[in-house]
Specification:
The chain has 667 residues and is mostly beta strands. The strands form 7 sheets. The protein has a 23-stranded antiparallel beta sheet that branches. Strands 3-8-9-6-7 form a 5-stranded mixed beta sheet. A 3-stranded antiparallel beta sheet has the order 15-38-37. Strand 21 (360-380) and strand 22 (385-404) form a beta hairpin. It is globular. The relative contact order is 0.13.
């Protein structure tokens, strides 16, 4: 794959001389996440998708997770159909996909420090301005978890005269949601305030979800060279945990059944961020953010755990300080941007397990500290040729304190520290031959440290667990033939050492353990296009090929479970008379091996193709949209698990045909 990538790069550069003669087309989109500062899409040495508010309105999305389903190379796995327990996977990491993608909200890390990953319901969709998706490793600028991609959710900011927005939604499974927001700016002060409520019975029995959210984003320009901001959010939710279904369960009770009708969870989550941006008057720009977040989760698995300490109460406190300095200054009369930063994170994690009588059985308190200086430089070798390179050193410290209060066979207490460190680097070359056209090549090394609870195996600490390292190569082209036809193509290969995974028969007693794979390789291609067939008709789509395999060890040559080789999306947008818009979408995910089938000896989870549509009408500040998901009522599951010995399979059925109506009014 590496040789193929270099060969394609040579071909691309040879064609650039022809493409470069075409008249330039203006580019008005910028992205923030590639370099932690605003940058032209065409200057970034990576594969990028930007989803704006109009893109979101054109879909039937209810949550952020829905809005990114059609992104090239990204696979969504929603276990219960209500986004409460879900993950995304870039470039073939399977079950651990969510732990290899870094998710940000306005640049603030929101990945959990434990294996629960990302809570995709924490940002209501009405709060989103745009979503920036960067495929490929980015540990130099973001560190841990940024192995396969970065997703930055940018929330809305107040601007213009005061505006009040009201919205309501209703749909299948007694889905209903309401939201109200107030935004604007006056003189030096900008404000955006939002409140929303969301409720649904869910597709399956005991897959209900209900939440209340509040959010704010305030800004104040103290002077021409100093700006301050304060962002905050609060969410309270309760939801059911229906669990998996066997094939026999589905045949006997149907796809909507739950074997665990009483299992449920409650979350409370809040955060606040203080930030400043100081222009140093020709000597650069200094930016610093201080943030704090607290998340409390109460989970009751009485049915699923059958009495094995089924009640869990966890609290995660996160404190972060992320200063950075940016200097724009010419070097040898060439444009140059230098970035120097430091990331500090402290996570306080506690988890208490209780038996069915609500008596404490075990208590874990884990602190994690992360310290990471980094730097990156972006140099314009010429007007069209850009070179970028960077380096990061990240050191982490874990403090473990575990006590088992079980009456029978208690595990020994754990009171110890563990340290680890990793280095990351990147290098990229971009030839921007037109405003919306460029070719690029990059190489980078990224990493992931184990989550705090990945170190534990049945009450004992697994000190043999190693951090994961990835060395990646990528080549790509973004080309605009004209304003009506654009395409993008990227080829990549990732060589992973010590890839972290869960071995269901691992550990000293064979009851399961988190371990490191032998070497693995992830390689593939991602292609997308966007064309305007005629003035009022847009046609767009993408296709991704992903090959993720073991390279050594007992599974050498086998596919990594839950990774589809093929994934694609297609869409059609028609602007009809009378301010009516019709959107039609299709999404395909290929077959893949069940979780735990590293040996590839059992049948695969079926692939699926779904089709969605909606129609919207706008009159002045009033918009109404009606949509249908899964038009042809396909039966499918986004996730499945099997027993590695017997091959017995469990499924997580996804919703059948369902409907949604949205009403919005601004004044």
């Amino acid at each position: 794959m590496v040789r193929l990538s270099f060969a394609v790069l040579i071909v691309i550069f040879s064609q650039v001389l022809v493409f470069g003669q075409v008249e330039d087309v203006g580019l008005d989109r910028i992205v923030v996440t590639p370099y932690r500062y605003a940058e032209d899409v065409g200057k970034a040495a990576s594969s990028i998708t930007v989803i704006n508010q109009q893109d979101i309105r054109d879909t039937n999305a209810t949550t952020v997770l829905d809005a990114i389903r059609s992104v090239p190379g990204l696979v969504v796995r929603d276990y219960f159909g209500n986004n409460t327990r879900a993950s995304v996977d870039f470039r073939g990491f399977g079950e651990q996909g969510g732990l290899n993608v870094l998710v940000l909200v306005d640049g603030r890390r929101v990945n959990e420090v434990d294996i629960s990953g990302v809570d995709w319901t924490q940002v209501p969709l009405n709060q989103v301005e745009r979503i920036e998706v960067i495929r490929g490793g980015n540990s130099v600028l973001y560190g841990d978890n940024a192995v396969s991609g970065v997703i930055n959710i940018i929330t809305r900011k107040g601007k213009g005269k005061p505006q009040l927005e009201l919205g309501a939604q209703g749909g299948s499974y007694d889905f209903n949601a309401q939201q109200v927001s107030l935004s604007g700016d006056k003189d030096k002060f900008s404000y955006w305030l939002d409140s929303s409520r969301n409720s649904t019975d869910g597709y399956r029995e005991n897959s209900y979800y209900s939440s209340i959210d509040f959010g704010s984003r305030l800004g104040y320009d103290v002077s021409d060279d100093l700006s301050l901001c304060f962002n905050s959010g609060y969410r309270s939710s309760i939801y059911g945990l229906p669990g998996a279904l066997s094939g026999q369960d589905i045949e006997k009770y149907g796809r909507r059944h739950s074997n665990f009708p009483e299992d449920h969870a409650k979350d409370k989550d809040y955060y606040f961020v203080f930030g400043m941006d100081k222009d140093l008057e020709g000597a650069g720009e200094f930016t610093a953010d201080v943030s704090y977040r607290e998340k409390k989760v109460y989970s009751d698995f009485v049915g699923a755990n059958m009495g094995w300490n089924p009640i869990l109460r966890s609290v995660i406190n996160t404190l972060a300080f992320t200063p950075r300095y940016k200097l724009d200054r010419k070097v040898f009369d060439r444009e140059n941007t230098f970035l120097l930063g430091f990331d500090f994170f402290r996570y306080d994690y506690s988890l208490n397990n209780y038996d069915i009588s609500d008596i404490l059985q075990s208590a874990s308190d884990i602190n994690k500290f992360s310290f990471a200086p980094y730097l990156q430089d972006e140099l314009s070798i010429s007007e069209k040729l850009i070179l970028v390179g960077g380096f990061r050193y990240e050191s982490v410290k874990y403090e473990f304190d575990y006590h088992d209060s079980s009456v029978f066979f208690p595990s020994p207490d754990v009171d110890t520290d563990l340290r680890a460190n990793k280095k990351a680097y990147n290098g990229g070359l971009v030839y921007k031959y037109r405003d919306e056209s460029s070719v690029y090549f990059n190489i980078n090394q990224s990493f992931r440290f184990p989550a705090v609870d990945e170190y534990f195996n049945w009450g004992s600490l697994n000190t043999d667990l190693k951090p994961q390292t990835s060395r990646d190569y990528e080549v790509g082209i973004k080309h605009s033939f004209n304003p009506s036809l654009k395409l993008a193509l990227s080829l990549y290969t990732m060589n992973i050492e010590n890839e972290l995974y869960y071995n269901p028969i691992g550990g000293p007693f064979g009851f399961g353990a988190n371990e490191n794979y032998d070497k693995t390789r992830h390689e593939g291609a991602e292609f997308s296009f966007d064309t305007k067939i005629i003035k009022n008709i847009d046609f767009f789509g993408n296709y991704s090929y992903t090959k993720a395999v073991f390279k050594t060890g007992a599974y050498d040559g086998n596919d990594i479970p839950m990774v589809p080789r093929h994934k694609g999306s297609v869409g059609l947008k028609l602007a009809l008379p009378k301010n009516i818009t019709l959107n039609i979408f299709g999404n395909y995910v290929g077959k893949r091996y069940f979780i735990n089938d590293q040996a590839n000896i059992f049948s695969q989870l079926n692939g699926y193709m779904t089709a969605d549509t909606n129609i919207s009408y706008t009159y002045k500040d009033f918009t109404v949209t009606a949509g249908v998901n899964n038009i042809f009522e396909r039966d499918f599951s986004e996730y499945g698990v099997c027993n590695s010995v017997t091959g017995a399979k469990n499924y997580y059925p996804s919703p059948e045909r369902n409907f949604k109506v949205t009403v919005e009014y601004k004044f």
